[in-house]
Automatic annotation (TrEMBL):
This is Signal transduction histidine-protein kinase/phosphatase MprB. Its cofactor is Mn(2+); Mg(2+). It catalyses: ATP + protein L-histidine = ADP + protein N-phospho-L-histidine. Residues 278-484 form the Histidine kinase domain. It comes from Corallococcus sicarius.
Amino acid sequence: MKPRPHSSRLRDALGSLSARLLLAFLLPTLLFLVVAGASVYALARASLEDELGSSLSALAAATASQVSGERMLTIEPGDDVSGTRTWRNLVRLLDGVRTASGVRRVYAVDAKGLVRTDVGGNLPVGAEVPELARDRLELTRVFAGERAASQVLFTGSDGLLYKTGYAPVVQDGQVVGAIGVEGSAAFFGPLRRLWRTFVMASGVALVALALIAVLTARGLARPLRRLMDSALRIGRGDLTTPVPPEPTREIGVLARELEVMRGALESRDRQLKLMLAGVAHEVRNPLGGIALFSGLLQEDLRAGAHADAGSHVDRIQREVTYLQRIVEDFLAFAREQPLARSPLEAPDLVSSACEMLSVDASSKGITLDVDAAPAHLEADGSLLTAALVNLVKNAVQAAPPGSHVRVRGQPRDGAYAIDVQDHGPGIPESERERIFEPFFTTREQGTGLGLPLARKIVRAHGGELALRSTPGDTVFTLTLPCLPAAAGEAPGARR
């Protein structure tokens, strides 16, 4: 099975981003709208139902207070047909309440639930009211002397929803019947319309959010696509094409960091190529010498000329030693050595490095002038000593016989600066730009790794190595961060 190309994986990743953004925008909003809308609708409906039931039961109680229980019980089946005065009076009362309040039906029943008068429902006297069976629990409370309303809405023959309020009819302290008032739940029409409006508005909001999510995903996808293209180019080995800046803040940070990484990789790649070319060049010379003198040695041994064999062996050993030094310098420069930091006194660092070069300096008649002010450092002593030894060694080699090499250390601008000064011919301006390049050297038998390795060590400590050179005055300045405790100490001298 062939691996999928990078472009296909890129499209899949960006498509997945769009889908995730779409879900992130829509899913929480949809859940919120459903839960909030349903909760508000249910709360509004319950509140309106309670209010309607309370109003209907209050109207029933007001009507029941005007009904004489004794006269109501005198109404018998057939009175509605003959139209007795008692029945007509009760009908007139209930019809007035119905007309004034706008309810659909008002009726009076006895304690057995039989109709005594029904205005709006048109049930005959003595008939049973079917709705009473539905509201048995509410009627139990009513016949106990309380007001009540039906707990559920019911649908009338006109398709509308209704609710019934009940109140007891009391005669001489006893409940002898009940008044029922049926009212329409007309508020459900506007409530339903409000719900439909809410659903439509929610749909519009979801569509708008979906559009925003798509546009946002596209807005993110374009810079991300450019960023991923740059990353893929770097992965394929193209370290020369810069990563374009991005206007988006977060992606812009990623682009800048990726550009920094590309620059570092390009610099390291260029440095590695220079190192490999330098190693090949430097190794070729001693290998040629070894091959030459080993051939001469072989010829002398065959000819029996043992007197010259020793000198050939010495030359071979010197070339091997030089080759070994090239390898060691190369490994020291290429290896990423972790720093073993520990407290270090600056005068001890300067004096130990100069002591190692005292014999070489004396052999050339050069005097080492050392002046180091006290300061506390946090550093890898062995690596820093090696870097400083390299600077002092170069100064000793460049200084004319009988002159001075000055090594001074002092606090400067919140850091600790060590100046290594010689009075040699100086470094030409054309060579100053390349003096810290690996394998650049003007000396025979020089590897050109001393100064680059010294700068690498110093920068690893958070410091810097700089050069200032004129004919007769060359100064290498090694600057290191020092601990705050060194700020209050007075400078002193060590020789």
